[in-house]
Amino acid sequence: MQPRVAIAHERLTDVAGSEHVVEQLARTWPGSTVHVPFAREEGIPPGITGRVHTSPVQRLYDALGQRGHAPLMPLVPWALQHASLDSSLIDALVVSHHAFALAAVGAVDVPSVAYVHSPARWAWDPQFRRGEADNRVKSAALTALSTWARRNERRWAPEVTSVVANSTAVKARIENWWDREAQVVHPPVDTSYFTPDPAVPKGDYFVAVGRLVPYKKVPLAVEAAVRAGVRLIVVGDGRDMAAARAVAGPGVEFTGRAPGEQMRDLMRGARALLMPGEEDFGIVPVEAMACGTPVIALGRGGAVDTVRPGDTGVHVHGETDAEIVAGFAEAMRDFDDARFRTDRLQEWAADFSPANFRRRMADVVAQVL
């Protein structure tokens, strides 16, 4: 008989990588409930509609017009303590954690598993935080929120029965910042949607896909492509768009946000996907490999797990922006398309399938029980 499981998450306001994780966790235990401080309809993955329970903070979120969530984040620990979690109705709690959700373990007296996308990197790493605030007011607010996030994680990390990291890089952060051991379970990637298509021929371009935000370093990829004299298509939008356009040349094309099928076909046709930023895990590179496209990635963070040099892509090494640009330019200039086989890339990506994720997480919960 399946265990009775409740799932806690920080918010359901937009559907991104962590929300897909929550959806797959809910599919692992079909009778589970999902508890969040606040949610909006557009942020709930279709697979968990009708299973979401919110907290009293939902009324405040509604009063704000469901527009901004940042001012409510300090309330998340309190909200999860006052969510509709009942120890008598569950055997285990699974927490999807970014910065504040860990507090949910204090609401129940049952074994718990924390699936950690990362400890709050912006809270623990001052250098990362500097890239996330572009004026003094935002910087002061983020510093205050960082103090609150670190306090929250220090308080509740010792109470979790078992900690799971989404990559070996995140596992190292957990051990360093929380003083806890963690096992690694990579997040799910939709390998049934991201597939090769013989009808989409390989083009003469590289591609960068995702939000244009500071930590993803997309302007460095643009600068490197210009230096290498190669064609680059940038798919996505964000506050780093102006910086990326400022260093672009005639060989760089910006599509903005693209529908899923268009984005998938651009990845299918690319010589390689570029990932110049350090990701906690990085789902997009695995999506590209599932499409039969290799990856040129900064050799840190999640790329250490997902990109196998010479087999599924290339690692670029560098500490400064200038070194990273030079490394990516060299990697694109010298890129050997013949080294990478579509079937091998697809085979490697298949290990990150949702079915494998669900099986591994079911095993973790079985262990704590």
Automatic annotation (TrEMBL):
Which EC class is this protein assigned? transferase
Keyword annotations for this protein, in alphabetical order, are: Glycosyltransferase, Transferase
Q: Which GO terms describe its molecular function?
A: glycosyltransferase activity
The cross-references to SUPFAM superfamilies, in alphabetical order and at most eight, read:
UDP-Glycosyltransferase/glycogen phosphorylase
Domain Glycosyl transferase family residues, every copy: 202-334
UniProt domain Glycosyltransferase subfamily 4-like N-terminal: residue ranges: 17-192
What's the protein name?
Glycosyltransferase
Cite the Gene3D superfamilies for this sequence.
Glycogen Phosphorylase B (3.40.50.2000)
Give the top-rank taxon of the lineage listed in the UniProt record for this protein. Answer: Bacteria
Q: What is its EC number?
A: 2.4.-.-
- The yes or no answer to whether the keyword Glycosyltransferase is present is yes
Q: Does the keyword Glycosyltransferase apply?
A: yes
